[in-house]
Sequence to fold (46 residues):
Amino acid sequence: MESHGENPVYILFNRDWGGEDTEDNGVAVLIEDGEVTEVGYKDIAF
Fold:
């Protein structure tokens, strides 16, 4: 992972739709320098 800003903050969201969730496709938001720079699956944070 390469960060282009200072103080990166990842906010991770999980979802529960019931049943088995083998992929666990949560959502992640990357905030750098106070601005949202990326939104995607939570694997962007790892």
Remarks:
- The beta strands are 9-13, 27-32, 35-41.
- The first strand starts at residue 9 and ends at 13.
